[in-house]
Design brief:
about 575 residues; alpha+beta; 22 helices; about 40% helix; disordered N terminus; binds 6-diazenyl-5-OXO-L-norleucine
Length: about 575
């Protein structure tokens, strides 16, 4: 009945008649049509209104989401099930030792909200821990081991979401993940490659070696991989909510193991962690509402700036070289501001009114030369004196139209590679997302200044940009991993959706990226941009860089006129699963 990346047959049938998602006059018309077609029309209506769609980076996680929906859960419960399942089956991307950002849409009230479960710096954070004796950045402490880890936000964020917006108790939504951890699963190729890639660092820490090299050996394709320690920690969370992680036995084990390996966490750091609910950024573009992530993400501000710069331009009438030119110049200007102004809103005063204003965008647009690349060095900025990636995104729409767009991360592949004692929890290396050394690039080449300097209790800036794009007749749930390229991927996906592309086309679209510094345009290897367009861009003064590594986008689209939902996973990732299924 279901097929990967294709609508459910019922939804296909529904294509012929609009159903309850349609405006009132259409519904009235529909009722008349149903009257004359009887059972057939009713069946179409049922199948159409009761489909749910999920796209995630791993088939087992997508199935976990549907399992929870079938037990009466809503989109929030499904997102929790997907996220916790990914903590088990895709630990290279995200997990309970990391954090997430999510936008949530409540169909009944039309309200959109934002959950900030970003990691935070421990109180004893000190810049000197991230410097070598000669004063140069120490990439090892900022990326590997417990000093690299911020206080996790994921468990608190999930507990908060379940309590306020879920229909099921948290314990119900954690069931599939606990089962996967206890009974085991066949690891994906990506997980096997990640373990191999990080083997040296994982083997430094006994609990990491025990988890990822069971019996002393790297797991092989087809092996059953179990994670009983994480299952126990998930059960503590299921039984006691956030306190099961941030207080009591799990907290003690986290702190003990982190400190024994040179980290600074305290029980007070863990007990102080809170997920925060914030107002999402909302803007209008081309007749659509874009609902996206506010600080401590830089993504939403940057996407809003880019869209505001482009708003009055007629991109369709431009030749391809000029269209790319304007996209790239919008990216350059947004990333300049990203580096300069953005950080944790609870610590930094940010000129958001200015950055989000169309008047500010007018000025930025006027500074774009029609036929020539701007040099980043011409724009005043924080100046740069410039590694595998991971993270994960999932998109969910339930049968009632509730939606969750959620991006979760442990930062780079397998985070800090540090598993905290017997908790089974792999800690993030998110401290590297701070501007640990002012003016020095992080793992994604991003530079920052005082706005993103590390301070105890502060959240590091993120590029994660979970978003909704809501039009009169169509809407999309969008997001991706990819470090700094998340922002430009989401930007490109919003434009593609507004251009009428479907979920599959949006995820497959070739990508373009500029982040102010380094001053070059990254174009996806194998891109279909013709050679003469590239030549024109070079003549305008662009340095073009073939880039191999891009994110792993998961998109759900709902066409409200036909009432068809489609879900698509990035074709760059063979483990992903976008799926639409009828729900009862
Ligand atoms: O929050 C951030 O911006 C980063 N920690 C995300 C890292 C990431 O996407 C790695 N990706 N492929």
């Amino acid at each position: 009945m279901t097929a990967r990346n294709t609508p459910h047959d019922g939804a296909e049938t529904a294509r012929r008649l609009p159903a309850s998602g349609a405006p009132r006059w259409r519904r009235t018309l529909l009722a008349l049509v149903i009257g004359s077609f009887g059972v057939l029309a009713q069946a179409q209506d049922t199948a159409a209104t009761k489909t749910a769609a999920i796209a995630s980076a791993n088939a087992l996680a997508t199935e976990a989401g549907f399992e929870v929906l079938s037990r009466g859960g809503n989109a929030v419960d499904a997102a929790i099930a997907v996220g916790t399942a990914l903590s088990v089956v895709q630990p290279e991307g995200s997990g309970m030792g990391g954090g997430f950002l999510a936008v949530i849409h409540d169909a009944a009230t039309g309200k959109n909200t934002f959950i900030d479960a970003r990691e935070m710096a421990p109180q004893a954070v000190s810049e000197k821990d991230y410097l070598k004796a000669d004063g140069t950045p120490n990439r090892d402490t900022s990326l590997n081991g417990p000093l690299a880890a911020g206080i996790p936000g994921m468990p608190a964020g999930l507990a908060y979401m379940a309590g306020k917006y879920g229909k099921l108790p948290l314990a119900e939504s954690l069931r599939p993940a606990i089962r996967l951890a206890e009974q085991g699963f066949r690891p994906s190729g990506a997980l096997l490659r990640s373990i191999e890639h990080k083997a040296d660092v994982l083997r430094r820490y006994p609990a990491s070696a025990a988890k990822f090299f069971p019996g002393g050996k790297a797991p092989q394709a087809g092996d059953l991989f179990r994670d009983p320690d994480q299952a126990r920690t998930l059960k503590a969370l299921a039984e006691k909510g956030a306190d099961g992680f941030y207080k009591g036995a799990v907290a003690k084990e986290l702190v003990k193991s982190v400190r024994a390996a040179g980290g600074t966490w305290t029980l007070a750091d863990l007990a102080a962690y809170r997920a925060k609910e914030r107002q999402p950024i909302v803007l209008d573009y081309a007749g659509y509402k874009v609902i996206t992530a506010p600080p401590p993400s830089s993504g939403g501000v940057a996407v809003a700036e880019m869209l505001n710069i482009l708003a009055p331009l007629d991109l369709k009438s431009m030749d391809e070289a000029h269209r790319i030119h304007y996209l790239v110049e919008a990216m350059r200007r947004a990333f300049r501001d990203h580096n300069e102004y953005l950080g944790d809103p609870d610590f930094v005063k940010m000129p958001l009114d200015m950055l989000l204003s169309p008047y500010y965008a007018d000025g930025l647009r006027q500074s774009i030369l029609p036929d020539q690349a701007t040099k980043s060095a011409w724009l005043p900025s924080v100046q740069a004196k410039a590694p595998g990636m991971h993270t994960t995104h999932y998109s969910v729409i339930d049968k009632d139209g509730n939606m969750v767009s959620m991006t979760a991360t442990v930062n780079t592949t397998l985070g800090s590679s540090f598993v905290a004692g017997r908790t089974g929890i792999l800690l993030n290396n998110e401290m590297d997302d701070f501007a640990l050394v002012s003016g020095q690039p992080n793992a994604f080449g991003l530079i920052g200044g005082s706005a993103n300097a590390p301070v105890g209790g502060k959240r590091m800036l993120s590029s994660m940009t979970p978003s909704f794009v809501i039009g009169k007749d169509r809407l999309a749930v969008i997001g991706s991993p990819g470090g700094s390229t998340i922002i430009t991927q989401v930007f490109g996906a919003i434009l593609a959706f507004i251009d009428g592309k479907d979920a599959g086309q949006i995820t497959a679209q070739k990508r373009i990226h500029h982040q102010f510094l380094p001053d070059r345009v990254d174009i996806e290897k194998g891109s279909d941009i013709p050679a003469d367009v590239l030549a024109k861009l070079k003549a305008m003064g662009y340095e073009i860089n073939d880039r191999e590594s891009w994110g792993n986008m998961n998109v759900v689209v709902w066409d409200k006129v036909t009432n068809v939902k489609t879900a698509a996973s990035d074709p760059r990732n063979p483990d992903g699963l976008g799926k639409v299924e009828a729900m009862h």
